[in-house]
Amino acid sequence: MVHECSHLQTLVTNLLSSTCSVSLTKVTMKQEYMLLQLTTTNITAAYPCCAVSSSSIHRRDQRSLTDLSWGTGTVRLQLRVRQFVYRNPHGERRIFTERLPALVAASARNTRRLITILRVVGMALGGKAGARLAAHLRLPTSPATVLRLVRTSPVPYLPVLQAVGVDVWA
Predict the structure, then answer these.
(1) Helix (H, G, I), strand (E, B) or coil at 23
(2) Same domain for 92 and 21?
(3) Which conformational region is residue 58 in: left (phi greater than 0), alpha (psi within -120 to 50 degrees), or beta?
(4) Which residue in 160, 166, 126, 167 sits closest to 146, CA to CA?
(5) Is pLDDT above 50 for 1?
(6) Rounded Cα distance, 83 and 95, in Å
């Protein structure tokens, strides 16, 4: 069992971003979903506004996230994060939660991987058709969410035009 657990830890670590400092603590398999419990492993966390590190833990908190489906079931992540105390009296807030930007955006309920896939589906198919395809892929979402993700997607870089051609026959 210990050997299998180390393989599962390696698999989860490789599937998640290599820049994420998380450790797999427990796996729960249900018929309709798989629950992965993850804990952050960084010793300190950076204050979001000025990137000053803090190691003074205030409390622990749990975030529930949805990830890409694996096989026939959905994947849920329970991410245990810490809240730290910011000791600078001039800071906007005294307590802040550690962030894992490679895994999930601040206060998001879906992983970045899931959002990327839903954006691609939305770009290709639009709202209703994209939501139907996502449901077949076991990534249930609404057409409004698919369209919101498309609208908030970053604009791709387009180089500046060097020359414009004109068709004289048109």
Answers:
(1) strand
(2) yes
(3) alpha
(4) 126
(5) no
(6) 6
* pLDDT tens sequence across 146-161: 999 999 998 888 888 8
Domain count, the chain: 2
What string of H, E and C letters represents the secondary structure of 28-66? EECCCEEEEEEEECCCCEECCCCCCEECCEEEEEEEEEE
* Residue 23 sits in the same domain as residue 84: yes
- Its pTM stands at 0.76
Contact (CB, 8 A) for 97 and 81 = yes
Residue 8: pLDDT band with limits 50, 70, 90: low
The pLDDT of residue 114 is above 50: yes
Angle between helices 127-136 and 143-151 in degrees, nearest 10: 110
Give the CB-side neighbour count of residue 95, counting CA atoms within 13 A. 8
Instruction: Say yes or no: 70 and 114 in one domain.
Output: no
